[in-house]
Write a structure and sequence with these properties.
Layout lengths: L1 H18 L31 H22 L5 H12 L8 E5 L2 E11 L2 E10 L5 E2 L6 E4 L7 E4 L4 E2 L6 E7 L8 E7 L7 E8 L3
Antiparallel strand pairs: 1-2, 2-3, 3-8, 4-7, 5-9, 6-8, 9-10
């Protein structure tokens, strides 16, 4: 009986061994991935950069971007600034002839002529309204661009404008014109009501 048991155990062992041929144990090493050779030794951990190297790289990249932005920023041309300042300081004058009108009374400054320190305004005056209008030309107010009141003398304009009047041509002579004056302002109001006010600003002075 003992001999039969030994023979049975040996036969079972041989049969089991033959049936397990070709079966291998799965690779369970967590340090190996599918792309690595199983025969290679597992990689223990990963390579770490030094903290100082990381900071140096970040600073180099940041400084490079700032330098690029600085180089790409267009600079203002000094000539453009100077031209803008020059334009802002230039006086603005009206183009002659120029006409103003108030309540049907029309005043036209046609041209200016200068003789030394005197300036003559060649003007036209007309009443297109239904009401007569009177003027006292000694009350004409003429001021230069420096704020000085200038004496005037009016010739050729009537003291009263009839309704629907003709066009009257005359002159307004401005005396004692100072040096450096570029423009004048003129104001003419009716008398005595002063309900009509004719104002012309920035009349150019020709030197």
């Amino acid at each position: 009986m003992a001999i039969i048991g030994v023979l049975s155990g040996a036969g079972g062992y041989i049969f089991g061994r033959e049936s397990l041929k070709g079966v291998t144990q799965p690779l369970l090493n967590p340090f190996l991935n599918s792309s690595q050779d199983p025969d290679q030794a597992p990689r223990q951990g990963s390579d770490f950069l030094n903290e100082g190297e990381i900071i140096a790289r970040i600073r180099a990249q940041t400084s490079g971007v700032e330098q690029q932005n600085t180089d790409s920023t267009p600079s203002k041309s000094p000539s453009s600034n100077n031209s803008s300042e020059a334009k802002s300081t230039e006086p603005t004058t009206v183009t002659l002839p120029t006409t103003v009108e108030d309540q049907g009374i029309r005043l036209e400054i046609r041209s200016v002529t200068q003789n030394q320190s005197d300036l003559t305004l060649n003007v036209a005056l007309q009443n297109t309204s239904e009401n007569p209008t009177q003027f006292l030309y000694s009350f004409i107010d003429v001021v230069d661009d420096q704020g000085r009141d200038l004496p005037t003398e009016t010739l050729g304009l009537p003291a009263e404008l009839a309704p629907k009047s003709d066009v009257y041509i005359g002159t307004i002579k401005v005396e004692a014109l100072g040096s450096g004056v570029k423009s004048l302002s003129l104001t003419l109001a009716d008398y005595p009501q002063q309900s009509v006010k004719l104002e012309v600003a920035d009349i150019p002075v020709k030197e």
